Amino acid sequence: MTFFNPKEEVLDIKLTQYGRHLLSKGKMKPVYYAFFDEGILYDAASAGITEAKNSAETRIQDETITTKTQHCFTGRDEFLFDGVGATALDEDEDRAEIATYERLHVLTDPLGTTELGSTKMPFFTMTMLDGEIDSTKTTETGSARVANVPTGADTFYSQQELRIPQIEIDVKYNIAVIDPANPDISFEIDPILSPTVTYGDGLGVVIGTDDIMILLEEGNTICGKENFEIEVFEMTGQTGPLGEEVIVPMLFQKKVEMVQGNLLLDEDEARTLAGLKKGEIKELKSSCVEYFMDVKVDSEINKASVCAAISKIKSEGGTIYSPCGIDLDCPDLKDVISSDIYASDADREDCP
Fold first, then answer.
1. The domain containing residue 49 runs over which residues?
2. Is 260 helix (H, G, I), strand (E, B) or coil?
3. What is the pTM of this model?
4. Span 112-118, mean pLDDT?
5. Contact, 206 vs 189, CB < 8 A?
6. Are the C-beta atoms of 105 and 162 separated by less than 8 Å?
7. Which residues pair with 251 in a beta bridge?
8. Does 238 map to a domain?
9. The domain boundary residue, chosen from 78, 94, 111
10. pLDDT one-digit tens code per residue, 192-230
C-alpha cells in the first residue's frame, strides 16, 4: 500500500480484475462514474478525537493521508479460478460472479446531491399505492456471512454489513375458470400466463397478477426524475464459498432509440438501426427482466391507474407524504397529498 504525493499526484485510475478481463476481450465500455469519500472522517468526536469546529476543514483537506487506488478486493483462496476441469465459459461466469460480489460489497455509498443550502441529509419516502408490504429488514439479507466468520483476533474473510433496507412484498396470482365467450372476471388477464386451451365443457382457465405500484421519492435533494437507478437481481437460492447468498444481476431489454444525433427517426428506421427487421419481435432471453415481469416508471404508468390508487387511499382516510409533490392532474388529489417543498430548512430564530 502506498500513499499519494499531494505535490505531484492528483488522480490515480485502476481497473478491477473483472474490468481488466473485459478490456482484454474488447468489452470494456464504461458509461458512468461516481465519487466516494469512505476514507474521510467527518465527525471526529465519533472516533474519540477532540477538535475545534473550524479545524475540521484543514484536517480533511490538508492533513488526511490518501492511499492509492485499491483495485483488487478478493483473493484466489476466496473464489474459484483453480483451472481444474473448468471451461472458458465457466471461468467467465466465475469472473462475473466476483464482479457482482465486489460491486455489492465494495464502495457501497457514492456521493449524492443535496439540496443547495440544506443542513439536512437526503432521505427516502416510500408509499404503497397498490399492494401491501409483508415484512421489512434493516440490512441486506445476503450481506452477513454465516460461514467462515472471523473469531477473536482473526482478520480473514473480513466484510462489512450493508445497511440496505429490505422490503418484502408478495405478488398474488389470480386464477379463474371462465366462459371464453363471456369472461366475467374482476382482474386483468395475463395472455402469456393464461393457457389458450378450451376444455371439453367449453370452459377455460385464465391467470392474472395484481400490480404493485410504489411512490418512491427522495427528500432534501434536487427533485428530478433521474434520482434513482433500478437494478434487478435473481436470487438463486445458492450459497457461495464464504456462506454468502449468490445473486445474479439481470438486464433490461434495450429499447429502440427513436432519437439519434438530435434527429427524430421514424419507427422502421429506428428498428433497422437497432438490428430488427420490420414487424420482427425481439426474442426475450431468461436473463432479461422483461422475461419475468414489466417494470414501468413515471410517465410509463397509466395515469388512470395512479389516480384510482390515490382515490382509494383518500376514501380510506389515508394521506400521502410527498417531499417533491406529485405532478399529476387527478380529481381526488386535493387534501390527500402533503408536501413541504417550499419550506425552508434554515434554523428558526425568535422574532425581535
1. 1-111
2. strand
3. 0.68
4. 75
5. yes
6. yes
7. 288
8. no
9. 111
10. 778 888 887 888 888 887 788 998 888 888 877 677 888
